[in-house]
Amino acid sequence: MEAKRQMLLQQIDQTTQQLNQTAQSRRATRDRLEALQNQIENREALLINVRDKYWKPTKLLSARKRF
Fold first, then answer.
1. C-alpha–C-alpha distance, residues 47 and 56, integer Å
2. What is the reported pTM?
3. What is the CB neighbour count within 10 angstroms for residue 27?
4. Dihedral sign, CA of 23, 24, 29, 31?
5. Rounded CA separation 28/50 (Å)
6. Where are the domains of the chain?
7. Which pLDDT tens digits describe the chain residue by residue (67 residues)?
8. Which one of 1, 9, 20, 63 has the fewest beta carbons within 10 angstroms of its own beta carbon?
């Protein structure tokens, strides 16, 4: 009976360790995802700023708008 109890306790410990590792891995994955999302947002903002600062419609484009 004691051997079975010890085996069950060992299984519980192993499962707890696996759950902790999984949780840590998920947190790391979430952190990487958030960092990538921030990079995307920053690059989009930069592209918008560059477009607004430097892009000027050509005469051809402005002529098309009249039609």
1. 14
2. 0.63
3. 10
4. positive
5. 33
6. 2-66
7. 999 999 999 999 999 999 999 999 999 999 999 999 999 999 999 999 998 888 876 666 555 555 5
8. 1
